[in-house]
Amino acid sequence: MYSTLALTLLAMPLAFAQSSTTNPPLSTLLPQIDAAPSLTPTIYDNSAPDPQRCPGYKASGLTNTSSGFTADLTIAGADCAAFGNDIADLVLEVVYQTKERLNLKVYPKYLSESNITRYTLSPDLVPQPQWDGKTSASSSDLTLKWSNDPSFQFEVSRSSDGEVLFSTYGNVMVYEDQFIEIKTSMVKNYTIYGLAENAHDFLLGDNYTQTFYAVDAGNSIDYNSYGTHPFYQETRYHNGAPTTSHGVYARNAHGQEWLLRDESVTYRTLGGSFDMYFLSGQKSDGSSSALQTITQYQTGCVGTPAMQQFWTYGFHQLRWGYQNISIMEGVVQGYKDANIPLECLWNDLDIYDNYQDFTDASLTFPAGPFRAWIESLHANNMYYVPIIDSNIYVPDPNNASDAYPPYSRGAALGTYIRDPSTGQFYIGDGWPGFSVWADWLVPTSQQWWTNETSSYHEIIPFDGIWIDLSEASSFCVGSCGNGRTTENPVHPPFTLPGDVLTFDYNYPEGFNVSNATEASLAASAASSQASAVSANPPLPAATTTTQGRTTPTPGVRNLDFPPYVINNVQAGHALVKGAIAPTATHNDPSNTTEYEMHNLFGLQISNATYNALLEIFPGRRPFTVGRSTFASSGRTTSHWGGDNTSTWGSMFLSISQAFTMMMAGIPMFGADTCGFAHNTDYELCSRWMELSAFFPFYRNHNVKAAISQEAYRWSSVAEASRRAMSVRYSLLNYMYTLFYHAHTSGDTVMRALAWEFPEDQTLAGTYAQFLLGPSLLVTPVLEPNVDYVKGVFPGIGQGTRWYDWYTLDEVTGVQPQENVTMSAPLEHINVHVRGGAILPLQEPTLTTTATRNSSYSILVALDGQGAASGDLYLDDGYSLVPNATKIVTFSYSDSCLKTSINGTYHSTPPLANITIAGVGKAPCGLSLTIAGQECEVGAVVLSHLNETVSITGLEAFTGEGAWQGEMELILQY
Q1: For the CA atoms of 672, 463, 738, 693, what is the dihedral angle to 10 degrees?
Q2: Staple partner for 720: which of 158, 596, 686, 802, CB 3.0–4.6 Å?
Q3: Domain range for residue 822?
């Protein structure tokens, strides 16, 4: 949904008219916060203190342990107070946790029950990697050395070759109550990736600052965004020698910044501790790789991603603006009439009474008819997902008709975050008006949340839940609703799409070329609307803060305005803008503040929703989609890229976003296809529907102030969608198997070319192309008004073969690293199969259920040695712990295709055909053995055309299921 900032951006260059409301806008009622001397974020403030002038620490009292060592750290000079109050006495812990992972912790020596949460992150909130009970310094891939000259400094290197991976030598460690800093030297022109979530180039570069503070700001390019994943992976190129790779994870949830500079990376947070994990990236053979590093992060640090239900890989349709059941019925019919697959319908806030969670808009979505309509979806093997916002409406206490039981039940349990100035609940502002937020540190919050979602499911039989505004977002500064709940419901302090004179006339780049007449009409309409708005001024801007950097005060912490100003995208860079104030308190024994917890809200509500769905659907994998995420969120939720725009740039950046989410362990990721804000057009939407068909999560979503953008609205988009979805749905089992490996082994689903071809340095920053798993190369069109696309074929000329998906013609005549021009008419996306792959396919249909029941085929794409391999994972598609599973492993060599089978799951569709690409010589016959029995193959049709062998008519031997017995097929010459 729209953020406050996104709404402001949407109004440019147009202005919005004031909407009607019985209450004055919040912006006229909230106090303005006094200005401080500086509004500049610290990274741009030349007058800010240099923390590297602090004295650092000296280590003493070293004690060796079976897993590493501990020591005391004592400040090595006068207090610095750069951005907080210095902590004089610290504890250092170094643990060689596993062969590939080394942990270094630094935290205050004197922790009490009242302040422990300020500095340590509980393993109950975020997984805390542990020692494996056997690794020591002598058996580790990594070596840590340290020095006290002139102050404590350390470096981590790879034991096998001495390569330094992380070094603070020449820099000081800074540890204050509101600021910690550690700085590592980097090699020249380093290549690091990750630090999700960001909308930025895939290769982060050496002139970039990644700010982490979960923020409700759409399309936040080069600024902080919804998620916090403080993990990076570095690849080093060695002039033709094999690349090396390693990773660094900093387990800290405070607001923070990573300063990527010419030859250094500086890690700064607004508090907490150093809890650093260094990953060797090494494999069993001693080499290291980016993919191995990412696997080590997921399997060893944050946990592997949840396995998703099979149906979730279908196509999803959503819009903010589906205003009644009849419109929803029309959308379903529109897709059916256009013969475009549709798996799941979603609703935005339109379904709720005055935007209040768990209610029904009785005039437009009455509960009975709405339930009946959802059940009709289920009857046709389709699904339904509603939005649930993270804030809970507070009813007017003087108005009995405004009763809101979800709030009252939570209030009775004391489950909401509190305002420290009053001790009462913290009341901010959200879509329905003044609102509160759950305190997930209180165990009763899970009980309450489960009850509310379960009760809602009894009325509306949803199949998953979409969690929004989970940063958590508040539309005002501070606890603005305290003493004012009698004014509820209040309109948000800004105009909304759909209010009077708010239609969006922005169109994508190139629209004036492809649609010159419409572009002219839109410009004229925009001008007329702007004139009308100027005669009827819009709501005043919501109150912001202008408070900047503050001065550390001995014994006092300034939480709302800390001395270090992170480059938060919100107005004034303030932490109090657009979010629950940092001073808000929780109900745990330590009265933990939002200052510590802010970045964790999205993780916590996703976990709570996951647990609630387990109660609603016992034994079934919960399907949740969350906006704000933190390290380890992938264990319980999927994610979408948030409030993007209908621009070619947003589409392009969605690929790098996807890569970073793959690294973060949240592979079920997708962007709002065709764009959320502004208007799309037929060209952009065609290209985007094609691109997103190869993202794991595939959903079209836009705002109600713009034109409709369902895929059937334009004939060209409909055709592009049908063609791309035909490829996707035939590959559903391939994608599902990729997720099985992600879930069990931490493998990636979408892959950067640099990960699969690490020795080619020219691919280091490439994200205009990507791989789905190791085997499919996708080359989308990412610019307007063209019918071609340029791309490379990595590894070609060095043993790698590529085949066109549609024709199976091998790519030839291409030089290594050549940027090849390929034909790409509007309805076409270029897809190529990598030689050496075996892909299990099924006949694509209009739903995933029908596709799962269609006949199988096998595509074999031979590599340079005439060999290939692959696998297929099968289960019931929904059980958290399936009763039966099956893994089919395929191998091809010496003209022989074999399968091996492990498991008992029974898949009923037959195997219909086998296609083998890259066969130069025509075979004269074949032999086939299934389950040890030789088959009479007289009815099997064998053909050879354009170096492709086709074998059809295999249903006769596999009528009881394709994978009931192991198969051996031999081509005869």
Answers
A1: -30
A2: 686
A3: 751-972
Query: Which amino acid is residue 734, in one-letter code?
Result: Y
Is 468 noted as a catalytic residue in this protein? Answer: yes
| Residue 962 maps to a domain | yes
Q: Does the residue 521 lie in any domain? A: no
pLDDT single digits (tens) 525-581: 889 888 888 887 666 655 566 778 899 999 899 999 999 999 999 988 999 999 999
Question: What is the reported pLDDT for 219?
Answer: 87
Residues with Cβ within 8 Å of 895's Cβ and at least 6 positions away in sequence, in order, are: 866, 923, 970, 971, 972, 973
Q: Which of 181, 343, 468, 747 is catalytic?
A: 468
- Catalytic position from the list 141, 643, 690, 760: 643
* Cβ burial 373-401 (10 Å sphere, 16+ → b, else e): bbeebeeebbbbbbbbbbbbbbbbeeeee
Q: The domain spanning residue 162 has which CATH number? A: 2.60.40.1760
216 is catalytic: no
CA 155 to CA 146: how far, in whole Å? 6
Catalytic residue among 471, 594, 672, 747, which? 471
The pair of structure tokens assigned to 21 is 């409301």
Q: Which strands make up the sheet holding 967-972, listed edge to edge?
A: 933-934, 925-930, 967-972, 896-903, 886-893, 868-874, 837-842, 856-861, 911-917, 948-952, 941-945
| Residues paired with 699 in a beta bridge | 316, 672
Instruction: For residue 353, tell me if it sits in a domain.
Output: no
- What is the rounded distance in angstroms from the CA atom of residue 21 to the CA atom of residue 166? 57
Domains in the chain, number: 2
Which of residues 302, 321, 347 is at a domain's end? 302
pTM (2 d.p.): 0.95
Distance between CA atoms of residues 257 and 270, nearest Å: 9
Q: Which residues contact 713 (CB under 8 A, 6 or more apart)?
A: none
Q: Is the pLDDT of residue 313 over 90?
A: yes
The CATH number of the domain holding residue 811 is 2.60.40.1180
Terminal CA-to-CA distance of the chain, rounded, Å?
Answer: 61
Cβ neighbours of residue 329 under 8 Å, at least 6 residues apart?
373
Mean pLDDT for the chain overall: 94
